[in-house]
Amino acid sequence: MGRGMASRTVWLNGRLMPEEQAKVSALDYGCLYGYGLFETLRAYGGRVFRLERHLDRLARGAALLGIPVSIQGLDAAVAQTLRGNGLSDARIRISASLGPGPTTPDPSACREASVLVLAEAYAPPSETAYQRGYHVQVSSIRRSSHSPLSRLKSANFMESLLARQEARVAGLDESLLLNERGLLAEASVSNVFVLSDGRLATPSVESGALPGITREVVLELVRREGAVVAERHVQLEELFQATEAFLTNSLVELMPLTEVDGRPIGLGMRGALTQRLHAAYRKLVEAS
Ligand SMILES: Cc1ncc(COP(=O)(O)O)c(C=O)c1O
Fold this sequence. Notes:
Blueprint: E1 9-12, E2 15-18, H1 29-33, E3 36-44, E4 47-48, H2 51-65, H3 74-84, E5 90-97, E6 114-121, H4 127-132, E7 134-143, H5 158-169, E8 174-179, E9 184-187, E10 191-196, E11 199-203, H6 213-224, E12 229-232, H7 236-241, E13 244-249, E14 253-260, E15 263-264, H8 272-287
Parallel strand pairs: 7-8, 7-14, 11-12
Antiparallel strand pairs: 1-2, 1-6, 3-4, 3-5, 5-6, 8-9, 10-11, 10-13, 13-14, 14-15
Bound molecules: pyridoxal-5'-phosphate (PLP).
Pyridoxal-5'-phosphate (PLP) binds at residues 40, 160, 186, 189-191, 210, 212-215, 248-250.
């Protein structure tokens, strides 16, 4: 809530309403089967960074899963939700679920998707947190590079949540997930970049990584500088040999990855390239 006793305002299926009134059917396939998608976005000074890319990913996922949702007007819905809660620096969540359907599973019988927009104030990690970076572990949970879910920001998010929880229980910041072949895929809620032998690389989407929007922006920034970055299979061993590594997502932007399974990455502190790319990212945010 954050503002005294005033309730949060959310946008559900076309209109703003107090959070307590926002209800979806108990038979929604999002609820019964995790049949849905979501996006997490960040607003800076009231402007949502790369909104159209997030909406595009949502639209592509919805088309693939047969979720009858239109992204038209969702930009206005996001703006209304921010305004309705008096927010300018915020995290935003858009979710789209398949809607209610018969008890015997039949996604094709679902006709009314539910779309929900939530927003709340967001304070990024401190400069000290960025200097320290994340300490992570390699999770026992694996991504399947063959699963369509690894390419989608699916509401079926249990594996990521379990992997993240594993990290929390171990007193760590994040979990890395390998794919079924033991190659690096991503982290539970972020993509990963590795600098080794002076070359930057990130696991390809074919490795089981979500095509992250922040990942896409970093690729763009590096290539714009005329530098090379590869989207390819990345061995876990390369990470241990790396001089620098970092994680990306829309909320934390670029977070140095400074320790994996108790072993320091590079010097065990934020690397120069990571810091430079993060500054470039922030400049781009300011300019957009
Ligand atoms: C599994 C997973 N990978 C990667 C990311 C990063 O995606 P983005 O940069 O679009 O926020 C996320 C974001 O939450 C995620 O859940």
